[in-house]
Amino acid sequence: MSIAEILETMEYGPAPESDKEARDWIRSLGAETKLFIGGAWRKAKSGASFETTAPATGEVLAKIAHGGAADVDAAVKAAAKAGPAWKALSGHQRARYLYALARLIQRHSRLFAVVETLDNGKPIRESRDIDIPLVARHFYHHAGWAQLMDSELADREPIGVCGQIIPWNFPLLMLAWKVAPAIALGNTVVLKPAEYTSLTALLFAEMCQKAGLPDGVVNIVTGDGATGEAIVRHPEIDKIAFTGSTEVGRIIREATAGSGKSLTLELGGKSPFIVFEDADLDAAVEGVVDAIWFNQGQVCCAGSRLLVQEGIHDRFVAKLLARMEKLRVGNPLDKAIDMGAIVHPVQLQRIRELVDLGIEEGATLHQPAARLPEKGCFYPPTLLTGAHPASTVARVEIFGPVAVATTFRTPAEAVELANNTEYGLAASVWSETLSLALDIAPKLKCGVVWVNGTNMFDAGVGFGGYKESGFGREGGREGLAAYSRPKRMAKAVPLRPEPQPALTGDAIGSAAVDRTAKLYIGGKQARPDGGYSRPVLTPAGAVVGEVGEGNRKDIRNAVEAARKAAGWSGASEHNRAQILYYIAENLDARASEFAERLSAMTGKRKQDSAREVAASVSRLFSYGAWADKFEGAVHRPPIRGVALAMNEPVGILGIACPESPSLLGFVSTFAPAIATGNRVVVIPSARYALAATDFYQVFETSDLPDGVVNIVTGDRDALAAELAKHEEVDGVWYFGPAEAAGRVEKASAGNLKQVWAETVERDWFNPAAGEGREFLARATQVKNIWIPYGE
Amino acid sequence: MTDRGLRVVAEGRVQGPEPSNPGIPFAADPIEGLRVNLAAAERRTSALAGRRTVKKDWQAAWLVRALQCIDLTTLSGDDTAGRVRRLCAKAMHPLRADLQAALGLADRRITTGAVCVYHRFVATAVDALQGSGIPVAAVSTGFPAGLSPLATRLEEIRASVADGAEEIDIVITREHALTGNWRALYDEIRACKEACGPAHMKTILGTGDLQTLRNVGRASWVAMMAGSDFIKTSTGKESVNATLPVTLIMIRAIRDYREMTGHVVGYKPAGGISTAKDALAYLALIKEELGNDWLQPNLFRFGASSLLADIERQLDHHVTGRYASFSHHAMA
């Protein structure tokens, strides 16, 4: 085209980024890539390999070694071997390595970007301007946490060998999110990149060599789902971190149940993008571009559900359609391309099928007129209007450049629609009215909310989901918990089942009127559904009293009562504190009665029981104190704005209390949960259940709203598994032997509730171990609300 | 009211629509209902720098177009008739003939969009540009503060038009915008429009003085409702002149105004645009937000004085592959 002709059309023309260096590097990998294990490059033991292709052209880029179980085992051994020395380094020494990695990534940033774009198909603009800078930022930020670990995390230590499995949508960025915090805190890792996108992980391994990272600290095993499974099932791995689909996340949850592995999952989403009538509509339209047409919509937190206030819907859609016409789809190595290629034909097929289904179910299809490249794996930016909340495309994660739009009438309805999903990863709220946006953000059940923005990320701001979008955070101080544990865990003693005395049939002689301990549900004492009771015995086997034998229907009723007590989560911290103090006051007033009861059940001396009651009163005071002091943080990401890290209650927590000490264990678990705004269903110690049932009258005299604490007595481990299965329950705490903990973890996979299963002994009497931040953190999840500002 | 329709330019080529804006009665809704988010506007403009680029022949063509959209300007206290004649000569031959030929444009008349001067030099410029088809623009309302009595300003406009100015750049009373006195601003601009008669009116908002994008958006609407043919950012004398976020808000207002009324308004960023790279960024933003119709001098102008020199040097580099010396290009 001549310059004179271009002056007529004013087209952009081609602007290709050179891929010469990237291809030279790929060639340097040889006929077949190798695995990075123990600081050395090794062939896959089986000799098997698979091809990785450039989705934009379909050409084969490289043959990737297919790591198998034997390779994973070798990598785990290397990581385990490297662990002690790596952990023993000072924080400063580890910080130097992370700093070196950050610098190396910056020095080779263009090579990383071009390789990523070749292998993944994302536009070079995104890999160059977004992915790679965030990768470097992540290593810088975590170099800082390594430096500060000794002082800021003095009571925590690394978990050990971390198995990390990452997806193909942000190959290097997800690697950074996994590797940087893990090695910063002294863990060693075995990482498996996604099958479609292994290359930048191999380039990263070269950087680890250049940085002089000790052998075995980072191991990269390329492979497919079977390789991932070998990691998940490897007995010497202490922690699994997975980013990917909810479907696979569920399988991993089940597979790791009972293994003692710690687990964090960052899964799918169907994130709402809410546009209020007072939004800057043009800004919101650009927001949609960044939300769903970023990375071809292959983003777990993509704003894929547009919820638009009815009065502006038509105008907004008209603006959006005009904007879609301007999007350029094509060669991802072109510098003026908005959307590149879909990662793989399999994914493309899934997108096509879902869009077809959406149309079949009544949605209207909108796509721009421009034609797609004839070759390669491309799909146009797509909008489906009139997709009602019940339609498939409005519910399932498409993981492609497809937005669905529907309307709402009021802010309350927007919140309801936004939360009407099994997912809870992210949300965008568009409004120029601060009071509206800041009212809506906390009501959205998800881990990240962007006000007048979308898809903003920073290493200093935690990212992660609520509900079936997973658990655990990546980034910021809140992300450190996923790669560290309390120091006392190293020498902890496994819990064993509490010995049960044989029933002798004797009753303790008493002149008192017979007392019937029922269940405590919705603020009322309720008979157990089954109509059975079980005895509580002295160590000699005499009957102290009887408690209800709860069953799954009682659990159902208790959860229902907890659900209705939602007001507690919105109560002021001051109010919650007052009630905890009041509970303490009323327990204290009955201290000798409780002590006597404890001694009757345990056979312990009266003064020991009195000490347990006193400790329980003190513990209630502690959480009364904490209720208005467990505050969030104000992050300062590199934007003009803030991100508010809010500690929000998990929701409905099921708690299976430690068997012993029965009263202190009961108080130490329900109190932090309700102090932070959760509603709880508590299964008290089975052996010493009367300590909890005696508490009904304490609750009843303490102004605790009905349904905030519900108590179901009976077979503790069986009831805990029922709680774990119940999909209205958001989290379960289980303190008991490993075997039953495994059953609880397995049962939790249904709605991927977070489980805190502690299978080791804890000194509940020692405040350093028995109360405080560890409990409060488990009772909450961090939501980050991004608020860019400026006038 | 002027609606001269399509202008047929020297080479006989139709260059697309011209501004045609009779204005509409004052309405408060577009002003009060305007929502502008600064952070989002900044994100849009900064991301666009990475999203759009032109290379090789496309870059050369775009630079030629940028050059054609320049209002070649001199607005200094030491301006003289001689200086203005020199400027006019440059406007008629902005590109060295050998470069123009090397670009394959030897048969085209490549000129700047207009020459922009104080009222005092309108007649000089009209005379110097005789037969070139290049319009003379005058800054005619007590430029740059615009605070002389309205009657004086209107008289100045009429005098400039009488001297042959086809385009009048007026400055608004920023006080009206800063105090939210939109009705007064509307009336003032309306009066200027009448004084302009057949000449195109470009309304300078003084965006650096208005400071907030919300103010910029509102003032843009008032200026268009009052009949401006172009809206323009700055006098070039404020401490902050044209910026991409300000441009984004102004051109979105142009788009929405056209959607609402059907009237077409042009856009002129002025001040601070001095490099070829800057110019390309503006053109890309215009193309994305307004479309190709605005990528020609009828609807888009750069108010600039030093931009031309950089464009010439870049085109020289395109042709020769060498970075050019300033002394190889004729000064204005």
Automatic annotation (TrEMBL), chain A:
GO MF, any single term: aldehyde dehydrogenase (NAD+) activity
Keyword Transferase: no
SUPFAM superfamilies, alphabetized: ALDH-like (SSF53720)
One Pfam family recorded for the sequence: Aldedh
E.C. number(s) listed in UniProt: 1.2.1.3
Keywords from the UniProt entry: Oxidation, Oxidoreductase
Active-site residues, as the UniProt record annotates them: E266
Top-level division of the source organism's lineage: Bacteria
RNA-binding among keywords: no
Domain Aldehyde dehydrogenase: 41-487, 535-759
Family membership noted in the UniProt record: Belongs to the aldehyde dehydrogenase family.
Protein name from the UniProt record: Aldehyde dehydrogenase (NAD+)
